[in-house]
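Tutorial, part two.
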Amino acid sequence: MLGAGAHSDYGMLTLLRTDGVPGLQVRPEPGGPWHAVPPRPGAFIVNLGDMLERCAPASAAADFSQTGTAAMTSLLCSRGL
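Running the prediction step on this input gives:
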């Protein structure tokens, strides 16, 4: 599998600059479904981290995220990427 498995970010904030390539998924509720984050070229995605959740537990929650899927890996491999 390509990508990073399910995790929460340990810092305050993570800024991700998107490039139009899909693959990021978030799970707002523990044990809930994964939601694909639509890629928007040139946009930034902001992940709230564990440290921010500890500093402001009533107003911030660190979501779980993952990148890549088995289906994406199959697609990339089938295209020789």
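The helical segments are 50-55, 70-78. In part three we will examine how such features are distributed along the chain.
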